[in-house]
């Protein structure tokens, strides 16, 4: 490609590295790329939301129908986490740049060559209905702004704009039994009440009204009170019902968004890596999600150590165990999680990124369990956050309070926290940096792809016009052909087969098909023990197999090797 193509790529950006796009703009960005670069970009609509928005996947790579190692990227499955869409688009743009001859994020040339051979499937926004609601109203939605539950006769909060300013934030109500107080250190910031506080004291509620209100008893706010399913609890991996797992949905894949993702990806066994983009916190969350590292396949764990080392180097984020450091209740795993499904059932190198390292901005050190960052916040931490917001985020998070008359509660104040920019997502001024760092990391993961090669080893004449043709089937990629050792147990993760046929007068006699099995890659992860200075040794020839075909006559031997997991490669050998 030419510098003109790179300039055209730059001109097509709709600004996703500096602001958060509405759904129509995300779609326009995808369509612009597909129209401008049809040789490497095309679109697949994998579903439609109840509000009529397309779930569009951007497929990147030459000849995308040719089955070969592929990766998946999704963002914004949780409605408020819109920076996931920006990072997904940033990765897509960087992949296009590689295909057009550019050098994004300093990716080494050998890694860039591998990336060009990988097909990328990018779904920037898994929950367009929820994200649109958040971007336009500011109202809280976990995943999707709908509720199909039948048990709705109880009193519950319905979030919406009460004061007519176009956004739905929080309401505070004076109450002598209130748990919150206005911070004297930063007026307008609500902090937990202490014994030394003199008041006034407040109750905090979502901005909205109460369904089935009896006029006296205010129900507890609940984060899924008027938006039933959490898409990241709706996937088939260890799914449990609502009574066990909040947000589970009525049954696995009850939601059109989660069902569309599963149907599309299950049909593509060649997917070997999966990036699930979330916010916020500043960490990578890896498997296992339901067991400690002592129960994890050792080679899988070594691979994730390598990914974690790159994470620290390129992004500054640590990589943590989902079970050991990111369960909200110790030893109680999250159920129906997407990345755990991609790892345990689809055999992918799958992980979550919690974008935006807000805690690091506040100078907080990593606790023993990373999830404690979210729960172990002191009053001093909240004040530090408010000051950071004022000094570095144009006061986008902490909003002033305004007195209004509520139709049910009388006089209340509306305002408080707008989490969209600075809390749930990075400030606009930091978004490009976040996109660049996480693209640099995932492109290296994509470069780990298995890479098959089939070559002639020898042709031996046996007399007359009969010959033995020896073929080498070799994996030259970092990852083994099964991708993860733990994936060997998956029934659909078939091993390699090598088959041959003759052309132009050549006939294959006897066996025309040999089972090759799985082939190791050259990678060993990090700290697997194989590179220790006191015993530096290689494996044997576990990354290649030699097979032999018997031919009669003269012509061309066409040899094809591969599986549905790796795709297939082919070579032509002339037999004189």
Protein model, in words:
With 576 residues, this protein is α+β, with helices and mostly antiparallel strands. The protein has 3 domains: 3-134 and 229-356 and 428-446, Aminopeptidase, CATH 3.40.630; 151-224 and 391-417, no CATH class; 452-575, Immunoglobulin-like. The chain has 13 helices and 24 strands. It has helices at 3-11, 23-36, 83-99, 109-117, 128-137, 256-266, 298-314, 322-325, 338-344, 358-361, 372-375, 379-392, 428-446; strands spanning 41-48, 54-60, 70-75, 119-123, 156-159, 170-174, 180-182, 190-192, 201-206, 208-211, 271-279, 283-286, 319-321, 349-355, 398-406, 410-417, 452-463, 466-475, 496-503, 507-509, 513-517, 544-552, 555-563, 567-575. The strands form 5 sheets. Strands 1-2-4-3-11-14-12-13 form an 8-stranded mixed sheet, sandwiched between helices. A 6-stranded antiparallel sheet has the order 8-7-9-6-16-15. A 4-stranded antiparallel sheet has the order 17-18-22-20, with no helix packed on it. The longest helix has 19 residues, at 428-446. The radius of gyration is 27 Å and the shape is elongated. The mean pLDDT is 94.
């Amino acid at each position: 490609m030419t510098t003109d193509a790179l300039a055209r790529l730059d001109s097509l950006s709709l600004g996703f590295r500096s602001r958060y796009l509405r759904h129509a703009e995300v779609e326009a960005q995808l369509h612009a790329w597909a129209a401008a670069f049809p040789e490497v970009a095309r679109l697949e609509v994998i579903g439609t939301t109840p509000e009529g928005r397309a779930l569009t996947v951007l497929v990147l790579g030459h000849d995308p129908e040719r089955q070969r190692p592929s990766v998946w990227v999704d963002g914004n499955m949780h409605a408020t986490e819109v920076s996931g869409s920006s990072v997904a688009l940033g990765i897509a743009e960087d992949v296009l740049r590689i295909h057009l001859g550019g050098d994004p994020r300093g990716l080494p040339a050998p890694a860039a060559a591998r990336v060009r051979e990988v097909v990328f499937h990018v779904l920037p926004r898994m929950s367009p209905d929820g994200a649109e609601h958040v971007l336009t109203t500011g109202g809280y939605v976990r995943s999707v702004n709908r509720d199909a539950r039948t048990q709705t006769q109880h009193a519950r909060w319905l979030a919406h704009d009460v004061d007519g300013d176009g956004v739905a934030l929080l309401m505070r109500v004076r109450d002598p039994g209130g748990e919150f107080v206005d911070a004297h250190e930063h007026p307008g910031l609500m902090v937990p009440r202490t014994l030394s506080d003199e008041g006034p004291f407040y109750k905090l509620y979502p901005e909205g009204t109460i369904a089935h209100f009896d006029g006296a008893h205010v129900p507890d706010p609940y984060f899924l009170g008027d938006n039933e399913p959490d898409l990241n609890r709706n996937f088939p991996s260890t799914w449990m019902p609502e009574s066990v797992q909040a947000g589970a949905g009525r049954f696995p894949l009850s939601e059109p968004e989660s069902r569309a993702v599963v149907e599309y990806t299950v049909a593509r066994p060649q997917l070997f890596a999966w990036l699930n983009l979330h916010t916020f916190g500043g960490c990578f969350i890896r498997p296992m999600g339901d067991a400690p590292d002592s129960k994890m396949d050792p080679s899988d764990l070594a691979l994730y150590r390598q990914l974690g080392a790159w994470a620290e180097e390129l992004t500054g984020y640590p990589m943590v165990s989902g079970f050991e450091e990111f369960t909200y209740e110790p030893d109680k795993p999250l159920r129906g999680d997407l990345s755990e499904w991609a790892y345990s059932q689809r055999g992918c190198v799958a992980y979550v990124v919690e974008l935006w390292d807000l805690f690091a901005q506040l100078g907080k050190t990593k606790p023993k369990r990373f999830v404690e960052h979210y729960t172990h916040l002191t009053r001093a931490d909240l004040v530090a956050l408010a000051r950071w917001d004022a000094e570095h985020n144009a006061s986008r998070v902490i909003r002033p309070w305004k007195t209004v008359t509520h139709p049910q509660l009388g006089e209340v104040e509306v305002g408080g926290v707008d989490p969209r920019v600075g809390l749930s997502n990075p400030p606009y001024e930091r978004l490009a940096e976040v996109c660049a760092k996480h693209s640099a990391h995932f492109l290296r993961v994509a470069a780990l792809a298995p890479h098959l090669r089939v070559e002639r080893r020898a042709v031996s004449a046996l007399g007359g016009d009969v010959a033995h043709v020896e073929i080498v089937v070799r994996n030259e990629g970092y990852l083994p052909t099964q991708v993860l050792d733990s994936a060997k147990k998956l029934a659909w993760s078939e091993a390699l087969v090598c088959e041959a046929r003759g052309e132009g007068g050549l006939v294959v006699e006897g066996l025309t098909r040999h089972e090759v099995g799985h082939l190791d890659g050259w990678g060993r992860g990090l700290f697997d023990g194989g590179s220790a200075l006191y015993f530096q040794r290689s494996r044997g020839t576990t990354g290649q197999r030699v097979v032999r075909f018997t031919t009669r006559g003269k012509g061309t031997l066409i040899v094809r090797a591969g599986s549905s997991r790796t795709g297939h490669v082919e070579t032509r050998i002339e037999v004189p």
